[in-house]
Amino acid sequence: MTTVAVPHIASLSAGGTIVPASLNQDFFDTTSPNGIHSEPNGGMNSDNVSTSFEIQAEHVLEGEAVGGKTSGGVRKVDYMSDLFGEEGTNPTTATHVVVHKCAVRKYVPYNVSLLIWDVTFFRSIFRFKKITEGEVVTEHGVTTRVSVDGTAIPHTLRHHPNTAWPDTYPPSASPPGNNIESSFESYTADFLHVQHVQNNVSAGWHECTLELFMESTNDATSGSTQHLVKSMIDVEQADNAYSNAGVEVDLHNRITFGSRNASIWYIL
After folding, report:
1. Which of 28, 160, 237, 243 has the maximal Cβ count within 10 Å?
2. Do 97 and 217 belong to one domain?
3. Is the bond leading into 33 cis (omega within 30 degrees of zero)?
4. Residue 56, domain member (yes or no)
5. What is the distance between the alpha carbons of residues 104 and 199, in angstroms, rounded to a whole number?
6. 42 with 149, same domain?
7. How many domains are contained in the chain?
8. Is residue 47 domain-shared with residue 65, that is, in the same domain?
């Protein structure tokens, strides 16, 4: 479209009668080149605009040249590993679930040259790495990723770190002080920022989601949950002997999302 046509206005003369239906078509019409709002920016280009012409705010409709939308939440939400997939699942190909209140959906009215997805979130995590007496290491993956229009974006995949190392070595039968068992947990809370850029995006509905996968701590073969058995020293007996008492707990990973948001920005 090289020329913006307004046939009804052009046909009017002094004292003429305005026909509402025809006047409306001068603003928008599916027949090219009629209508000043039938195409982005009225189809203005070097062929029909003077070199001295300057675009003013009233020439461009809201969201016509640039636009955006943000959705998010600030109330924390906890996710536990016992709610997710089987142990041994590959986090890269595993099915992820959408993180609550971290998605945005937007109708883009025109084909756009540049579209930017922006996702930020604050997370704290408890993810254990267990080493047994036989030097067997057990750990389970926790990952997040961004998907756009239902397709996972590989470069946005994030593997979240171990934060707890429970020591499951049994203590000796020696008196207290010589049979110390120790476990270590680091406090890990981070603010993460992920972006994805698309070029030449078609008009229509588009959606971005932050998604989470947590490998289950339930053993897929035996059906048993990962356990932590801690031997503890009981009270001193009258004969100056000591007896051991055991404590057993189930181990699950946890990730907590605090403030989080997903945004879209596009440029015509």
Report:
1. 160
2. yes
3. yes
4. no
5. 19
6. no
7. 2
8. no
Estimate to the nearest angstrom the gap between the alpha carbon of 176 and the chain centroid. 49
* Max intra-chain CA distance, the chain: 119
pLDDT tens-digit series, residues 131-180: 665 556 778 889 999 999 999 999 999 999 888 887 655 444 444 434 44
User: In this predicted structure, what is the pLDDT of residue 47?
Assistant: 67
Single-letter amino acid, residue 206:
H
Residue 110 DSSP label: S
Q: State whether 42 and 70 are in the same domain.
A: no
Rounded distance between C-alpha atoms, residue 176 and residue 6, angstroms: 94
In a domain, 26, yes or no: yes
- Choosing from 30, 51, 72, the residue where a domain stops is 51
pLDDT of residue 233: 46
* Calpha distance 127→49 (Å, rounded): 62
- Sign of the dihedral through C-alpha 32, 34, 38, 44: positive
Instruction: Determine phi and psi for 143, rounding to 5 degrees.
Output: -135, 155
CA-based R_g, the chain, Å: 31
Q: Specify if 243 maps to a domain.
A: yes
Asked whether the beta carbons of 181 and 165 are under 8 A apart, the reply is no
Q: Which residue is it, tokens 């048993």?
A: 224
Q: Which runs of E-coded beta strand occur in the chain?
A: 66-73, 77-80, 97-108, 112-126, 129-131, 137-139, 142-148, 151-152, 158-159, 164-165, 184-185, 188-201, 204-214, 227-233, 244-250, 254-267
Percent of the chain whose pLDDT exceeds 90: 30
Number of other CB atoms surrounding residue 124 within 10 Å: 16
Domain containing 129: what range? 61-267
Question: 248: buried, middle or exposed (CB in 10 Å: 19+, 13-18, 0-12)?
Answer: exposed
Among 51, 71, 90, which residue terminates a domain?
51
